[in-house]
Amino acid sequence: SSNEHKLNFKKSKEACLSYIQDALLQKQWKRAAEFLTCYVESLEKDYSREHIGPSEMIWRLGTEILWHHSQNSMKEFNCFMEQMKTLGVKRYLKVCLEHVFHLLCNGQIDEAYQNLSLAESWRFGEQTALQDKEMKLIQAYRGLLDYYSWSKQKNILLEQGEDGFSDLAVEQEMHSYFRKAAVNLKEIIKIPGVWDIFVKCYVDLLEFYGDHNEARQVLNEYAYNSRFPANPNAHVYLYQFLKRQGESKKSLISALKILHDIVPSHELMIDFNTMLQKSKKRKKRRLGLEVIFAALDYAGWKENAKAWSCLARQVKQIVISEKHLDWIKQEWNSRKDWWPAFHFSRYLAKRNWQENKSLSYEKALVAGILLGKGCKYFKYVSHQGCKAQLKRFRMLKKFVNRHNPVHLRISG
Amino acid sequence: RDFNERCAQCSEVNWGLTDGGRFYCRSCHNVTERTREVVNTDFITNSRVQTISKGLRKQEKNDGGSEWYICEGFQLVLKKQVEALEALGVCPQMKDEILCNFWRCYLQKSKQAYCKRPAGEAVKALSVCESSTDVDSDPERPSLLHLLSLSESEGDLQTDCSFASSVSKVSESTSVYSGSVDGSLYLMKNQKEKLRMTMPMTLSFCYMALLWVREPITLSELLRFVVEGHIPYLNVFQHFPEKMKLCGLDLKIFCVESWPVYEEVFNKMHELAAFLDLPRFPDITESCFLHPDMLCMKYLMEANLPDELHNWTCRVVKKIGIGEVDFLTLMPGNKSTRKVKYDVLAAAVIVVVLKLLFLLDDHYEWLLSDLAEERNKNNTEGGPYFEFKKWYEVVKHSLDVEQKKLDEERAKYLWRCEKPLFYSVKNKSKVLKRRQMVVNLQNQFGKLSGSVQRAEKPNPSSFQLSWSEENTDGSCFHGHSLKGILQEKCGLLTAMNPDYWLCTVKLCNEKLCGHLAHYREVEFPQSYHFVLGLFSFLLRVQPSYIHDEVCMIEHKLFNKKLYKKLKYNTVLRK
């Protein structure tokens, strides 16, 4: 119809909004502010049928602009946030929370704490119940800041202890922060979610006060409760805790097993492999091989000398014992098509040799066993090594030559 | 005062007004049932509004307001608009004689004033306003949602939803409905025969008056002045006096949130002229600004095209007879003649001339341009030959710049004004709070953006693009000669281009689909798009609108050839 192109309020504001977006994307804060000034009168219209109303738009856009434009003037920023809090009661706690984040980013911890306390005491009829989740977050962050204060007090105490002083007041303050923090942190981690920082802090508190059982329970819940989203860090925290507690290798290994499944490229795979290699159980040693091969599938590990040394050690051990060559065969089967180009190219041989001789040594051993003494990588590195008259490279050459037929059995 | 009936008792014509607003015969003191109408001929708010039927209304307006009718509001709007036009240089007769009479005539014909109001209507109007009892019990009262849905959607105030829901909870007095006396009545009645007044229609009134006086302002210019703020439209109601309280349904009538389009105002104007039974308008002759020859000259200048093209436009105008007085002059109510859009017509003529000379098929015009360039190298005497390519580059650049500015302005437009608008007294405080917040935010971000206040409105000007011959960079093409692209034949200069392509072979039936042709559906050459786009920008209308006119002109121009072809086709089929 001919009225489609009519310029009306709605279209005008839509256009205005797209100008603001463009300006923000290009970091033109002044220009964005200019258009936002024209956009704000949208507040006087009711957009209850729209998905995102003008008040939310203004909050989000205005925050961005003020944050980048007038970073020095937190006063302006705070004033704006206060206005935004009054704009939408359904968003009140969310706005408070984001405001707190900005304050924290600006290093204003005390103000952040005040705002959190204020928000915690907010009540507004049925909205209070509807915004329960945000409230829990607010309490959790207050708990976090309490933890931070506790931590400061603890450090003061430790310093004083070294000097031979002991201040009762500091100690009491510390305990009181602990209580406040513990209460809130405990609450939030009950709800399924990703709460890495809260969990860490809470466990830290528990460990300090010697409540290891509770700590263990918390970490187990966090890692193994299926209601919680899959989170590699949960397993890492549990593992680290168990390690600190001096738990048996068995429980350490079981803690890392799931981590290997979720994130085969995790940095703890080296620890994992090391433990598994030393195990008396055949299954575990088998798993160890699988773990280290899997880790080296990832580009991030290509130059990790430690990882290669793990693999080299295990491969060497298997070859010498002449048992379980089929393990290597199994692992190599799915990799023989692409590992040579990925790890053992001549270019890499040169580069590894130049940059990291230990790396090239380990890799050359693996290459030599898997691909035979004729492979480019091994040939180049061993040649260079022998030329440089490095003993271990001569040993390497001998070793690989001796076990050369192995590669045929592996790749066959 | 306008009541001329004879008294039933003494047959005298000597009337006065009671306090209750009824007429009484001064001779025999016979009181009638007739109530006095509101309109004052002096174009100022009738302060005597307060005396109207006070006794019959149960509510007292305790907020200092008085009772006012919708048409009073419109009267004020028109007054402001015509004053603005006067400030722009329009002759003063327009206000006092022309528009005033048009308005009076309208009021009379639509039975809002200057006539005997049927008693039944008056009672109905009162019954809507005076009830202070429960909203839902009265079966005669139209539901609020019904009222809102009936009104035009031109002002799509989205507060409707919330308003309706908030009011339905209210079972208070009807001061919630509207500040005016007849606001709800206004929206309710199906006023098709009576041509209900709307905000866009105020511009139709203005245009009609301008046309009558044959002022040199085209409709597209008028609308542009409105958008640029030289003629009050958007927030005129803020000039209503304090006593005229605006709320509730009044907002739907007076607070528009869109700019009216050419088509709308144009069509309404013709409807209005017919409705008022106006006679034939003053003649549009060759010396008139609105005559195609004159307008073509103006637009050629503005489009930076050579003056020599004017000869060609005049030839086309003459050939198809659109320069005739009878064609151009408005004859209201005559349905057989096509309504003339003077500005669009002139632009279309130029487009046709360009097509005649340059073909505009994305190929020929560039060839011609190269040819002209070649000729220009050897051209030592007189002015340079016109090169399409150079013109295109210069004009496109300026057009892009101006279009970009316009787009930004449109996005930055501020629609609200200081005067707060609220549907009901209930949400007044909320509205005021919101307004305060808006002002605060505007100040805060306004400071950040560096621009303290919006720039002053630029002075209204008739030309949006201007080119000066004094520029040495050769960016003005007015004086360029067309010799570069013409050839001599039998002593006359004719176009080298022997071809022409029609925009459409068959015109659509305008009554069926609303258009003569469909611009979007067919692919046209880029040069054609560009030229349409240029005039579309200048006139602030959609390109398709100009395209329709182009089709119409082409069909008139090549009428014989087309006719022959059609006849040939039908013969073949037989």
From TrEMBL, chain A:
Q: Name one GO biological process term.
A: transcription by RNA polymerase I
Q: Origin, by domain of life?
A: Eukaryota
Q: Which InterPro entries match?
A: SL1/TIF-IB_Component (IPR052669), TAF1A (IPR039495)
A Pfam family of the record is: TAF1_subA
Question: Cellular component GO terms, alphabetically?
Answer: RNA polymerase I transcription regulator complex
Name of the molecule in the record: TAF1A polymerase
Protein encoded by which gene? Taf1a
Automatic annotation (TrEMBL), chain B:
Keywords, comma-separated and alphabetical:
DNA-binding, Metal-binding, Nucleus, Transcription, Transcription regulation, Zinc, Zinc-finger
Cellular compartments per GO CC: RNA polymerase I core factor complex; RNA polymerase transcription factor SL1 complex
Rrn7/TAF1B C-terminal cyclin domain segment(s)? 258-448
Q: Name one Pfam family in it.
A: Rrn7_cyclin_N
State the Gene Ontology terms under molecular function: RNA polymerase I core promoter sequence-specific DNA binding; zinc ion binding
Keyword 4Fe-4S set for record: no
Q: Which residues form the RRN7-type domain?
A: 2-33
Localization terms from the record: Nucleus, Nucleolus
The name this protein carries in UniProt is TATA box-binding protein-associated factor RNA polymerase I subunit B
Instruction: Name the source organism.
Output: Helopsaltes ochotensis
Q: What is the name of the gene encoding this protein?
A: Taf1b
